[in-house]
Amino acid sequence: MPTTTVLSELLRPALRMAGITQRPGIIPSTDQYAELIPEVNRMLQSWNCDGQKIFATSIVAYELVSAQKIYTIGPGGDFNAVRPMFIKDANLIFPTSPELRTPLKILDEHEWSLIRMQDIGNSLPWCIFYNPTYGPSGQGTIYLAFQPPEGYQLELYTWTPLGASFTAITDLVILPDGYNDAIVSNLAIRAATLYPTMATVGPDLRKLAANALDRLQTLNTICPTLRSEAEYLGIGGNWQWSGMFATGGGSGGDVNLQAFIVSGAINGTNGSDGNPLFTLSQTPTFLELFKNGVHQIPNISYTRSGSLITFLAPNIPVTGDLLYALGTI
């Protein structure tokens, strides 16, 4: 069960465990409390940098603006929230009922710098880059490649930070199971550094503090599931590869892999509904379609009837777009 207490109930036993207040009933002085409050804040702020000490994930969806590439996140930003220390996962939410999500790849700064074309409006994003950019505003920055039209949302999975802004011993503290023990025992060791001539920190306290942290890290660590590439793709059998540019058709492929031959106009001239129509030389029993590396969602990004593929607005290819398809035959 969560523990609800006040800050003094964490500081007082920490001073006692460190041997600074040695006799029962001795209450820490006002100065001791005043010095220990910023110390507990520093410790918890340090823990917020370690995902193994974070006990919860925040899941929030933010509205995207048509053709906007850069968003600030933090107090008063485009996304008005706590600036995340770390973004674990991200999804693009389609304006459908029920909602449809597609995962977005989270890039580091080097991977982001390698994207040659980042600004394509009215196209579905396939990745984001998060730059914490902490400053006086307390805001980070999120970049999208590409930029969708109105109605889409960006769903972020971020670390939920531990509260680390205490100012008074009467501040309310709500802790999950195990955190009370870990905070008090580890704070006792840090308190000893404030009063080295008074403190008595032995191996038992250090072991207690280490074990308390180990239990938290074990609880908060998720072991990834091992899976093969075939399982990741979701199918088996005879895969076919197609690499083609949206210039009215073309074909390509990798060594020893057969390519689908594609033909069709890209400007909507040969589609009955005004959308571009592509024709595959073979009819796959299962198809995965990609545009510029972004997975295309059936009935949202395109429709297929046999060997005919019709792209839907706002996802209509333009000259220079890279399309490819994987499928079974």
Report on the structure:
By secondary structure, this protein is an alpha+beta fold. The chain folds into three domains: 3-53 and 162-220; 57-159, no CATH class; 229-328, no CATH class. It is built from six helices and 19 strands. The strands form five sheets. It has a five-stranded antiparallel β-sheet with strand order 12-13-14-18-17, with no helix packed on it. A four-stranded antiparallel β-sheet has the order 2-9-4-5, with no helix packed on it. A four-stranded mixed β-sheet has the order 3-8-7-6. Strand 17 (302-305) and strand 18 (308-311) form a beta hairpin. The protein starts with a strand and ends with a strand.
Oligomer: single chain
Helix and strand composition category = alpha+beta
Query: Order of helices and strands, N to C?
Result: EHHEEEEEHEEEEHHHEEEEEEEEE
Cα Rg: 28 Å
Average pLDDT, rounded to a whole number, is 82
Q: Tally the beta strands.
A: 19
Shape: elongated
Q: How many domains comprise the coordinates?
A: 3
How many DSSP helices?
6
- The helicity comes to 10-25%
Distance between the termini: 55 Å
Low-confidence sequence ranges: 230-259, 268-272
**Strand order in the largest sheet:** 12-13-14-18-17
Strand content: 25-35%
